[in-house]
Amino acid sequence: LLKLGGYGLIRISSMLNPHPPNLMFPIMVLALWGILMTSSICLRQTDLKALIAYSSVSHMGLVTAAIIVQTPWSLTGAMILMVAHGLTSSALFALANTNYERTHTRTLLLVRGLQLAFPLMSTWWLLTNLTNMAMPPTINLLGELFIISTLFNWSSPTIIITGIGTLITATYSLYMFLMTQRGSISTQFRLLPPTHTREHLTLTLHLLPLGLLILKPALISGLFT
After folding, report:
1. What pTM did the predictor assign?
2. Of the candidates 138, 151, 136, which has an alpha carbon nearest to the alpha carbon of residue 63?
3. What is the DSSP-derived secondary structure letter of residue 196?
4. Are 95 and 124 a contacting pair, CB within 8 Å?
5. CA angle 77, 30, 55 (to 5 degrees)
6. Which of 3, 48, 50, 192 could be cross-linked to 106 through a Cys-Cys bond (beta carbons 3.0 to 4.6 Å apart)?
């Protein structure tokens, strides 16, 4: 739904080009402020799925700001980030579901230390969280670089907000990984059913495109270049 909303913004914004300044500035302020607010909310979440959902909203703040600027670079970055985060967010929800099916709880304090029980699943958690942080060589990094460069060209003070947002994103991504995978596992979770091949296949089909798309980003960015 977030990505569908982003597509709708792209279609509507093109009709309003060039934007009236009195319409553009308030929406841009709300989008940039939303990045900081939703990222900060992620840091105090106790529910795993709520944390992932707020993470998606935080990334869409960047997309909204990029769409408002209405340059080829910003629209390309918005499209890349929507595709990249669509796969990343879906992978995170799939991982959260595998945890919930075995522990029957989404509370972060109760599902610690799962690396001991599921070492391979812990690897998926690490790779997905690194992708969520836009670590190279993922396509997420390319999308964020396009958007941050465009926003900086539009107004140089925006680099402060986008920089802080990127820092908070890295913080809550590491927080999510450490809270779910590290530490001592609870005694009630000593006997957990093993992970299945279909779950690993699902995660492979999420993360493999993210790794391969960096080889030819034009597949998802050619509309606006």
Report:
1. 0.88
2. 151
3. -
4. yes
5. 60
6. 48
* Residue pair 151/66 in contact by the 8 Å Cβ criterion: yes
47 - beta bridge partners? 107
Q: Where are the domains of the chain?
A: 1-219
Rounded distance between C-alpha atoms, residue 160 and residue 164, angstroms: 6
Task: Enter the tokens of residue 6.
Answer: 């982003």
- Give the tens place of pLDDT for each residue, 34-90: 999 999 999 888 899 999 999 988 889 899 999 888 888 888 999 999 999 999 999
Q: How far apart are alpha carbons 10 and 4 in whole angstroms?
A: 10
CA angle centred on 171, ends 165 and 175, rounded to 5°: 145
CA nearest 40: which of 142, 208, 140, 175? 175
- Which distant-in-sequence residues (6+ apart) come within 8 Å of 71 by Cβ? 150, 153
